[in-house]
Amino acid sequence: MSKRINVRLPDDLYKQLYKKDGTMTDIICTALRTQLEVKTDRNIQRTDDVQMDLHNEIYSSVYNVEIMPLKKEIQHKLEIIHMLEKDKIYLQSQNNALLMDKVPLLTKLKIKLLDHRHEE
Question: CB 29: neighbour CB atoms within 10 A?
Fold first, then answer.
């Protein structure tokens, strides 16, 4: 099915159409289809761009609002773990030093106890 339309064309455009091979109807229909396809492609591209912009904006918001604070919290906890590990190593060395200090005392005490038992 087709419809008839009346269109006013500028003289220069009419002359260009008149010089083309084919009927005016075919030339105008082809030109209109081509133009509409280009506009459709542009609209699709704009829609894709809008979707990408929206995705980027949402990701950016989620990243800044949720992910960054979590990353900072993880970094803080890692620093605490590192400090606790250093404290653990220090306390272990202090414990070993105390034990080494006490060994001679314990040895003397043991000797005294053994001497005391022998005297009885």
Answer: 13
